[in-house]
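Support request from a user on the community tier.

User writes: "When I paste my structure tokens into the form, the page sometimes reloads and wipes my input. The last time it worked, I copied everything first. Here is what I submitted, just in case something in the input itself triggers the reload:"
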């Protein structure tokens, strides 16, 4: 049986839309000139990301640039990314570059959907960055998930004080995070072909949130 396949981020975003999950305004550009034109339409600053089925961890291969403030900068960086990724992964088929509105900074959270062999659709939430990678500060629930239960998940995180306003920061919108976790649980339940979803990071704000990276794998049906 073939393993799960990652779909393009542009396709992952279609799944997000179906479940009312936000994603920054974006366009797919094929060339540096197209990227510059798309950025001018979206408005600055923008982020550029490589779109290729062979590239799963984009920053690791030089496939992401943030804080681009002008069309000229976008054109230069776009050319640089295309060249660097092609050099790092010579067999990569490059579909283009995703030009995204840059979201304002927030507390980095990760929200994931997965499928447990025994319990089926499940959701993971955690604090982003070193909290996930080094401290493994994550928590899981299986479908169905209520908003109340999703709030309890957040409360279980060791990094919870970062969400409720540690060090004089404002608390983030816990309800918006809970709603997002519930939406991901629904996606895992309603879309059996989805093997795994990774929203990493989701930027959490005092009001609302914005997922800025969506990685989704699907299992071949036959
Ligand atoms: P990777 O495949 O390497 O995980 P990401 O899409 O997560 O690539 O981009 C790398 C980093 O760039 C993110 O962790 C985030 O900090 C930043 N980033 C990406 N897209 C945006 C965006 N639209 N707005 C703000 N920051 C972004
Ligand atoms: Mg990411």
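"...and here is what came back when it finally went through:"
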């Amino acid at each position: 049986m073939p393993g799960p396949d990652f779909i393009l981020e542009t396709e992952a975003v279609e799944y997000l839309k179906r479940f009312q999950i936000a994603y920054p305004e974006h366009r797919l550009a094929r060339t540096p000139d197209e990227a510059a034109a798309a950025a001018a339409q979206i408005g600055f600053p923008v982020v550029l990301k490589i779109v290729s089925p062979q590239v799963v961890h984009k920053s690791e291969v030089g496939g992401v640039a943030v804080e681009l403030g002008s069309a000229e900068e976008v054109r230069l960086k776009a050319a640089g990314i295309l060249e660097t990724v092609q050099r790092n992964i010579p067999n990569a088929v490059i579909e283009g570059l995703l030009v995204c509105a840059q979201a304002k900074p927030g507390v980095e959270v990760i929200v994931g959907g997965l499928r447990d062999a025994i319990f089926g659709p499940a959701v993971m939430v955690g604090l982003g960055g070193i909290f996930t990678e080094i401290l493994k500060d994550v928590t899981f629930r299986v479908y169905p998930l209520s908003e109340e239960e999703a709030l309890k998940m957040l409360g279980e995180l060791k990094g919870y004080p970062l969400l409720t306003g540690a060090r004089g920061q404002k608390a983030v919108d816990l309800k918006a995070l809970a709603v997002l976790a519930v939406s991901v649980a629904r996606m895992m339940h309603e879309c059996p072909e989805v093997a795994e979803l990774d929203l990493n990071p989701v930027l959490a704000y005092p009001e609302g949130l914005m997922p800025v990276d969506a990685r989704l794998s699907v299992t071949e049906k036959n």
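Agent notes: The reload is a front-end session timeout and is unrelated to the input. Residues 24, 47, 49, 57-59, 64, 66, 100, 102-103, 201, 212-213 surround adenosine-5'-diphosphate (ligand 1) (CB under 6 Å). The helical segments are 9-18, 32-42, 71-88, 130-133, 147-156, 160-163, 174-190. Escalated to web team.
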